[in-house]
Specification:
Length: 280
Protein backbone atom coordinates (compact mmCIF):
# COMPACT_ATOMS: atom_id res chain seq x y z
CA UNK A 1 0.00 0.00 0.00
CA UNK A 2 1.40 3.42 -0.91
CA UNK A 3 0.57 6.85 0.39
CA UNK A 4 1.40 9.59 -2.09
CA UNK A 5 3.19 12.82 -1.36
CA UNK A 6 0.90 15.82 -1.24
CA UNK A 7 0.48 19.21 0.41
CA UNK A 8 0.94 19.03 4.18
CA UNK A 9 -2.44 19.44 5.89
CA UNK A 10 -2.98 21.22 9.19
CA UNK A 11 -2.40 17.97 11.05
CA UNK A 12 1.30 18.20 10.22
CA UNK A 13 1.47 21.46 12.14
CA UNK A 14 0.17 19.56 15.14
CA UNK A 15 2.73 16.80 14.58
CA UNK A 16 5.46 19.42 14.36
CA UNK A 17 4.46 20.95 17.68
CA UNK A 18 4.32 17.54 19.39
CA UNK A 19 7.74 16.53 18.10
CA UNK A 20 9.20 19.77 19.45
CA UNK A 21 7.55 19.34 22.88
CA UNK A 22 10.22 18.99 25.63
CA UNK A 23 8.64 15.78 26.98
CA UNK A 24 8.57 14.11 23.57
CA UNK A 25 11.43 13.06 21.31
CA UNK A 26 11.68 11.22 17.98
CA UNK A 27 15.08 9.80 17.03
CA UNK A 28 16.00 8.16 13.72
CA UNK A 29 18.93 5.74 14.04
CA UNK A 30 20.54 3.08 11.88
CA UNK A 31 19.09 -0.37 12.46
CA UNK A 32 20.95 -1.98 15.37
CA UNK A 33 20.24 -4.30 18.27
CA UNK A 34 19.71 -2.85 21.74
CA UNK A 35 18.30 -4.35 24.93
CA UNK A 36 15.94 -1.37 25.19
CA UNK A 37 14.31 -1.99 21.82
CA UNK A 38 14.26 -5.77 22.29
CA UNK A 39 12.46 -5.40 25.65
CA UNK A 40 9.80 -3.25 23.98
CA UNK A 41 9.47 -5.72 21.10
CA UNK A 42 9.08 -8.65 23.49
CA UNK A 43 6.41 -6.90 25.53
CA UNK A 44 4.55 -5.91 22.35
CA UNK A 45 4.65 -9.38 20.80
CA UNK A 46 3.42 -11.10 23.95
CA UNK A 47 0.58 -8.70 24.69
CA UNK A 48 -0.57 -7.71 21.20
CA UNK A 49 0.21 -10.74 19.05
CA UNK A 50 0.10 -13.30 21.88
CA UNK A 51 3.44 -14.85 21.02
CA UNK A 52 4.94 -17.32 23.50
CA UNK A 53 7.67 -15.75 25.61
CA UNK A 54 10.10 -18.60 24.95
CA UNK A 55 9.74 -18.07 21.21
CA UNK A 56 10.93 -14.46 21.44
CA UNK A 57 14.71 -14.40 21.47
CA UNK A 58 17.32 -11.76 20.66
CA UNK A 59 18.38 -13.87 17.67
CA UNK A 60 14.88 -14.06 16.19
CA UNK A 61 14.41 -10.32 16.77
CA UNK A 62 17.67 -9.55 14.99
CA UNK A 63 16.70 -11.69 12.00
CA UNK A 64 13.27 -10.09 11.82
CA UNK A 65 13.86 -6.39 12.44
CA UNK A 66 17.58 -5.63 12.73
CA UNK A 67 19.50 -7.44 10.01
CA UNK A 68 18.93 -6.05 6.54
CA UNK A 69 20.28 -6.70 3.04
CA UNK A 70 20.23 -2.96 2.34
CA UNK A 71 23.53 -1.09 2.22
CA UNK A 72 23.76 2.46 3.51
CA UNK A 73 24.26 5.08 0.83
CA UNK A 74 24.59 8.82 1.35
CA UNK A 75 22.36 10.99 -0.83
CA UNK A 76 23.29 14.65 -1.28
CA UNK A 77 21.13 17.39 -2.74
CA UNK A 78 20.70 21.12 -2.83
CA UNK A 79 18.74 21.03 0.44
CA UNK A 80 21.01 18.72 2.42
CA UNK A 81 21.96 15.05 2.64
CA UNK A 82 20.78 11.84 4.28
CA UNK A 83 21.44 8.10 4.11
CA UNK A 84 19.40 5.38 2.44
CA UNK A 85 19.13 2.07 4.27
CA UNK A 86 17.34 0.43 7.22
CA UNK A 87 16.54 2.48 10.31
CA UNK A 88 14.78 2.40 13.66
CA UNK A 89 12.70 5.48 14.43
CA UNK A 90 12.38 5.68 18.21
CA UNK A 91 9.69 7.55 20.12
CA UNK A 92 10.44 8.71 23.68
CA UNK A 93 8.13 10.26 26.24
CA UNK A 94 9.80 11.76 29.31
CA UNK A 95 12.87 9.69 28.57
CA UNK A 96 11.00 6.39 28.24
CA UNK A 97 10.98 4.47 24.96
CA UNK A 98 7.30 4.04 24.07
CA UNK A 99 7.42 3.01 20.40
CA UNK A 100 9.73 2.05 17.53
CA UNK A 101 9.08 2.18 13.81
CA UNK A 102 11.27 0.03 11.56
CA UNK A 103 11.82 1.85 8.27
CA UNK A 104 13.60 1.32 4.99
CA UNK A 105 14.63 4.59 3.33
CA UNK A 106 14.71 3.83 -0.39
CA UNK A 107 15.32 5.93 -3.53
CA UNK A 108 11.59 6.14 -4.32
CA UNK A 109 9.94 5.86 -0.92
CA UNK A 110 9.97 5.57 2.83
CA UNK A 111 8.83 2.00 3.49
CA UNK A 112 7.21 1.16 6.83
CA UNK A 113 8.42 -2.36 7.73
CA UNK A 114 7.06 -2.77 11.26
CA UNK A 115 5.82 -0.79 14.22
CA UNK A 116 5.76 -1.70 17.90
CA UNK A 117 4.61 0.25 20.93
CA UNK A 118 4.39 0.00 24.70
CA UNK A 119 0.90 -1.27 25.48
CA UNK A 120 0.76 1.07 28.49
CA UNK A 121 0.46 3.87 25.94
CA UNK A 122 -2.04 2.16 23.64
CA UNK A 123 -4.61 4.89 24.33
CA UNK A 124 -2.43 7.31 22.36
CA UNK A 125 -3.03 5.47 19.04
CA UNK A 126 0.70 5.51 18.39
CA UNK A 127 0.36 3.46 15.19
CA UNK A 128 -1.72 6.18 13.56
CA UNK A 129 0.54 8.86 14.97
CA UNK A 130 3.64 7.12 13.58
CA UNK A 131 2.06 6.98 10.11
CA UNK A 132 1.72 10.76 10.14
CA UNK A 133 5.28 11.20 11.42
CA UNK A 134 6.58 8.88 8.70
CA UNK A 135 4.57 10.70 6.03
CA UNK A 136 6.10 13.93 7.28
CA UNK A 137 9.55 12.31 6.99
CA UNK A 138 8.79 11.28 3.41
CA UNK A 139 7.88 14.85 2.47
CA UNK A 140 11.01 16.20 4.17
CA UNK A 141 13.36 13.74 2.43
CA UNK A 142 11.74 14.36 -0.97
CA UNK A 143 13.15 17.89 -0.85
CA UNK A 144 16.65 16.37 -1.00
CA UNK A 145 15.81 13.45 -3.28
CA UNK A 146 13.03 14.29 -5.79
CA UNK A 147 12.59 10.61 -6.77
CA UNK A 148 11.46 9.83 -3.22
CA UNK A 149 7.77 10.58 -3.68
CA UNK A 150 5.92 7.96 -1.67
CA UNK A 151 5.26 6.50 1.74
CA UNK A 152 4.72 2.72 1.66
CA UNK A 153 2.56 1.32 4.45
CA UNK A 154 3.25 -2.31 3.55
CA UNK A 155 0.71 -5.07 3.05
CA UNK A 156 -3.01 -4.47 3.28
CA UNK A 157 -5.27 -7.40 4.20
CA UNK A 158 -8.90 -6.37 3.94
CA UNK A 159 -10.10 -9.11 6.27
CA UNK A 160 -7.61 -8.20 9.01
CA UNK A 161 -9.11 -5.64 11.46
CA UNK A 162 -5.64 -4.51 12.55
CA UNK A 163 -4.87 -3.32 9.01
CA UNK A 164 -8.07 -1.46 8.22
CA UNK A 165 -6.66 1.80 9.59
CA UNK A 166 -4.37 1.97 6.56
CA UNK A 167 -7.37 2.72 4.39
CA UNK A 168 -8.10 5.94 6.29
CA UNK A 169 -5.16 7.85 4.75
CA UNK A 170 -5.74 9.72 1.51
CA UNK A 171 -4.77 9.77 -1.25
CA UNK A 172 -3.62 6.15 -1.08
CA UNK A 173 -3.19 3.28 -3.55
CA UNK A 174 -2.99 -0.50 -3.66
CA UNK A 175 -0.90 -2.39 -6.17
CA UNK A 176 -2.76 -4.70 -8.53
CA UNK A 177 -1.20 -8.17 -8.00
CA UNK A 178 -1.69 -9.15 -11.63
CA UNK A 179 -0.50 -6.00 -13.44
CA UNK A 180 1.59 -4.29 -10.71
CA UNK A 181 -0.27 -1.04 -11.47
CA UNK A 182 -1.14 1.29 -8.59
CA UNK A 183 -4.90 1.77 -8.23
CA UNK A 184 -6.73 4.30 -6.00
CA UNK A 185 -7.78 2.67 -2.75
CA UNK A 186 -11.40 3.79 -3.13
CA UNK A 187 -11.71 1.70 -6.31
CA UNK A 188 -10.01 -1.32 -4.77
CA UNK A 189 -12.09 -1.48 -1.62
CA UNK A 190 -15.31 -1.96 -3.62
CA UNK A 191 -13.93 -5.16 -5.13
CA UNK A 192 -12.48 -6.28 -1.81
CA UNK A 193 -15.84 -5.82 -0.06
CA UNK A 194 -17.57 -7.73 -2.84
CA UNK A 195 -15.05 -10.57 -2.74
CA UNK A 196 -15.45 -10.81 1.02
CA UNK A 197 -19.26 -10.80 0.85
CA UNK A 198 -19.36 -13.49 -1.84
CA UNK A 199 -16.41 -15.44 -0.37
CA UNK A 200 -14.67 -15.47 -3.73
CA UNK A 201 -11.46 -17.47 -3.75
CA UNK A 202 -8.28 -15.90 -5.07
CA UNK A 203 -7.26 -12.32 -5.61
CA UNK A 204 -9.04 -9.25 -6.87
CA UNK A 205 -7.54 -7.73 -10.03
CA UNK A 206 -8.17 -4.04 -9.51
CA UNK A 207 -7.17 -2.51 -12.80
CA UNK A 208 -10.05 -3.92 -14.82
CA UNK A 209 -12.59 -4.00 -12.01
CA UNK A 210 -15.25 -1.80 -13.58
CA UNK A 211 -17.96 -4.44 -13.60
CA UNK A 212 -18.60 -5.07 -9.91
CA UNK A 213 -21.21 -7.75 -10.66
CA UNK A 214 -18.53 -9.83 -12.41
CA UNK A 215 -15.22 -8.74 -10.91
CA UNK A 216 -12.08 -10.23 -12.48
CA UNK A 217 -10.79 -12.56 -9.78
CA UNK A 218 -7.64 -14.62 -10.25
CA UNK A 219 -7.50 -17.89 -8.33
CA UNK A 220 -5.32 -20.95 -8.01
CA UNK A 221 -6.55 -22.61 -11.18
CA UNK A 222 -5.66 -19.51 -13.20
CA UNK A 223 -2.02 -20.00 -12.24
CA UNK A 224 -1.57 -23.80 -12.38
CA UNK A 225 -2.83 -26.74 -14.39
CA UNK A 226 -3.47 -30.23 -13.02
CA UNK A 227 0.11 -31.40 -13.63
CA UNK A 228 1.48 -28.58 -11.48
CA UNK A 229 -0.26 -29.99 -8.41
CA UNK A 230 2.11 -32.97 -8.38
CA UNK A 231 5.21 -30.78 -8.73
CA UNK A 232 4.65 -28.79 -5.54
CA UNK A 233 5.18 -30.07 -2.02
CA UNK A 234 3.96 -29.24 1.46
CA UNK A 235 5.15 -30.51 4.85
CA UNK A 236 2.51 -31.67 7.36
CA UNK A 237 2.87 -33.69 10.57
CA UNK A 238 6.34 -34.96 9.72
CA UNK A 239 5.53 -35.99 6.15
CA UNK A 240 5.98 -34.38 2.74
CA UNK A 241 2.97 -34.48 0.40
CA UNK A 242 2.42 -33.28 -3.13
CA UNK A 243 -0.05 -30.44 -3.11
CA UNK A 244 -2.72 -32.23 -5.12
CA UNK A 245 -2.84 -35.18 -2.74
CA UNK A 246 -2.73 -32.95 0.33
CA UNK A 247 -5.62 -30.75 -0.84
CA UNK A 248 -7.76 -33.83 -1.52
CA UNK A 249 -6.97 -35.17 1.95
CA UNK A 250 -7.92 -31.85 3.53
CA UNK A 251 -11.25 -31.47 1.74
CA UNK A 252 -12.96 -31.16 5.14
CA UNK A 253 -10.80 -28.09 5.87
CA UNK A 254 -11.67 -25.71 3.01
CA UNK A 255 -10.11 -22.64 4.66
CA UNK A 256 -6.75 -24.41 4.97
CA UNK A 257 -6.92 -25.64 1.39
CA UNK A 258 -7.72 -22.12 0.22
CA UNK A 259 -4.74 -20.75 2.15
CA UNK A 260 -2.42 -23.34 0.61
CA UNK A 261 -3.66 -22.62 -2.88
CA UNK A 262 -3.45 -18.87 -2.51
CA UNK A 263 0.08 -19.09 -1.07
CA UNK A 264 1.28 -21.04 -4.08
CA UNK A 265 -0.60 -18.72 -6.42
CA UNK A 266 1.26 -15.77 -4.96
CA UNK A 267 4.62 -17.50 -5.37
CA UNK A 268 3.96 -18.51 -8.97
CA UNK A 269 4.76 -21.87 -10.63
CA UNK A 270 8.53 -21.50 -10.88
CA UNK A 271 9.16 -20.49 -7.27
CA UNK A 272 6.39 -22.69 -5.83
CA UNK A 273 8.08 -25.80 -7.21
CA UNK A 274 11.25 -24.90 -5.30
CA UNK A 275 9.55 -24.23 -1.97
CA UNK A 276 8.45 -26.64 0.76
CA UNK A 277 5.54 -25.09 2.61
CA UNK A 278 5.34 -26.08 6.29
CA UNK A 279 1.74 -26.49 7.48
CA UNK A 280 1.21 -26.19 11.24
Amino acid sequence: MAYSKGSAPDVFNMIESLIKHPDFKVVLEKSAYSEEVFALYKKYQINVHHDLENDITPESFKRFLVESPLKYETISGDNGSFELGSFHQKYYYKGQLIAVGVLDLLPACVSSVYFMYDIDFAHLSLGKFSAMVETRLSIYLSKMLPSLKYYYMGFYIHSCPKMLYKGSYHPSYLVDPSTLDWVPFEECVKLLDLAKAKRINGFACFSDGKDLDNPPISGFDDFFNAEDYDKMDAYLHGNVYCLGRLCKGLKDYPDLVETLQQTYAILGPEIAQRVLLCVQ
